[in-house]
Automatic annotation (TrEMBL):
Residues 1-12, 22-31 have a biased composition (Basic and acidic residues). GO terms for molecular function: DNA binding. The keyword DNA-binding applies. This is Site-specific recombinase. Residues 10-116 form the Core-binding (CB) domain. Coiled coil: none annotated. Keywords: DNA integration, DNA recombination, DNA-binding. It comes from Natrialba taiwanensis DSM 12281. The keyword DNA-binding applies.
């Protein structure tokens, strides 16, 4: 088949026929079926296809296929005018913020570029100046990504979780000798949960590790959450799978070591392959234990009797080395919501009414930039110095403002 004939056949295909191949190429993990980018791109491609077919948009919008033609939109129907109209639709009809409009259009533009390389389109219409003209100006901010924990908030949260963990551990370790087995288990479980929460908060507050590098991401099979084998408490380091798609060592500063060491001693994981931050979700653990014990040959009634001997399935999992999954990034947000409320922390932010995980990273970035400058901060944050300067430009602006004020005082005085 000649290249011209192949291109012609692809141009006559419906838009949706290309989506799976594109998403496969852009996905992560074995088979290309993981990754947040794939999930978000799939959503926007589906919306674009619906809009192109006339199923989404203004009431008088009939799609990109001529009115006298009865078929699905194909690549032959695409040109820069189509993408210009879609940019206008994103900017006006959906009531989106300007930076969100830019983000959504980039998903469609990236697919358009891929289609050029694969022979579906003859030109990258989405990148033409006329196509992008209706897009609003990007203000350079990411939606909801501006929260930074202040020193007061960081101290309030870490002090709260530290007190809770100390009280729970003391209550467990000072139980009377005649305490029943179930009551002992309940006390140990409460101590474990409080110690886990403390360790998680301290890691988020002081390491500046991205929450997606620390915990499990259901959309990316490679991000299974850090395990104890990834930590070296003596060296003060932790191996994490970085945003740049490779393993790297992150620093564990002194404030983090003691909470992690105390937590590990209390948990006493059966193997080093256990997650540092396992889920405590009862439904997840119950299903996991029933499935694992059944595979080991236990009968249902025996499994029920065995589980009845434990106050919580997590404790049974520890005894039987039934490894649970790590908590997810969404799980961490839920934990921080609960802890922020319990600690009664004053939070003034347009999107988050709690201390969000990324705010810990940004807060640590603020501390490092102010104390050591952009170069050191960039190394610790695993970012380029250029990006750190851009994201923390308000610090330099404030310092320059102080210099200007001092200069005015000297000259005018």
């Amino acid at each position: 088949m000649t290249p011209d004939k192949t291109s012609r056949e692809r141009a006559e295909q419906s838009l949706a026929n290309s989506f799976e191949r594109y998403l496969q190429d852009k996905g992560k993990g074995r088979g290309g079926d993981g990754g947040n980018y794939r999930r978000n791109a799939a959503r926007e491609l589906e919306r674009f296809a619906e809009w192109a077919a006339g199923d989404r948009g203004a009431d008088d919008w009939t799609g990109i296929v001529p009115d006298d033609v009865d078929r699905e939109p194909t690549f032959e129907d695409l040109d820069e005018r189509v993408f210009r109209e879609y940019a206008r639709h994103l900017g006006g009809d959906r009531g989106l913020k300007q930076n969100t409009v830019q983000t959504y259009y980039r998903y469609i533009s990236a697919w358009c570029g891929w289609c050029v390389n694969e022979g579906y389109l003859e030109a990258h219409f989405a990148q033409r100046a006329s196509a992008m003209a209706p897009l609003p100006e990007d203000d350079g901010r990411k939606p909801g990504d501006q929260q930074a924990w202040t020193s007061e908030q960081r101290h309030a949260l870490t002090r709260h979780v530290d007190e809770r963990a100390r009280d729970a551990v003391e209550a467990y370790t000072t139980l009377p000798e005649d305490t029943g087995p179930i009551d002992k288990q309940r006390a140990r479980y409460a101590a474990l949960k409080a110690a886990r929460d403390r360790a998680l908060v301290f890691v988020l507050a002081y390491t500046a590790v991205r929450v997606g590098e620390l915990l499990r991401d259901p959309n990316d099979p490679r991000r299974r959450g850090v395990r104890w084998e990834d930590l070296s408490l003596d060296d003060g380091s932790m191996d994490v799978y970085r945003k740049k798609q490779q393993w790297d060592a992150a620093s564990l500063p002194d404030p983090v070591i003691s909470p992690l060491r105390s937590y590990r001693q209390l948990m006493d994981p059966p193997t080093e392959r256990w997650p540092v931050f396992p889920t405590f979700d009862q439904r997840t653990l119950a299903g996991l234990i029933q499935e694992e014990l059944a595979e080991r040959g236990e009968r249902p009634e025996a499994i029920t009797e065995y589980r009845d001997e434990y106050a919580r399935d997590l404790l049974l999992a520890l005894d039987e080395d039934i490894r649970p999954p790590s908590i997810t990034t969404d799980g961490a947000r839920s934990i921080l919501q609960r802890l922020s409320e319990a600690a009664e922390i004053d939070i003034d932010h347009p999107k988050h009414d709690y201390l969000a995980p990324h705010g810990g990273r940004r807060g640590m970035g603020e501390v490092l930039v102010r104390a050591f400058g952009y170069t050191v901060a960039a190394r610790y944050l695993d970012n380029s110095e250029e990006m750190v300067r851009e994201r923390y430009s308000h610090i330099e602006a404030g310092e320059l403002g102080d210099v200007a004020t001092e200069a005015l005082s000297e000259i005018d005085g």
